[in-house]
Amino acid sequence: MAQSVHSVADGLRPIGSHCIHKLRDRANLEEAARALLKHLGELKRPYLTQVEEKLLSLIEQEFGV
Q1: Over 60: is that where the pLDDT of 39 sits?
Q2: At 14, which helix (H) or strand (E)?
Q3: Organism's domain of life (predicted)?
Q4: If I label 13, which of 19, 30, 37, 46 is the partner at 20 to 30 A Cα–Cα?
């Protein structure tokens, strides 16, 4: 069975392109944001969905990364 490869063209972003761990270390991070980042960091797939990407972008904007 061939493994599916996702790309930016699919609307899916590689997880490695984000500073999830850097964001999680910020002292002023709210509990809900920290929980979401923890979940994203534990994903077993190497990409983010469009919704996950939007949520991560919002956290980055809110906490100045």
Answers
A1: yes
A2: strand 13-14
A3: Bacteria
A4: 30
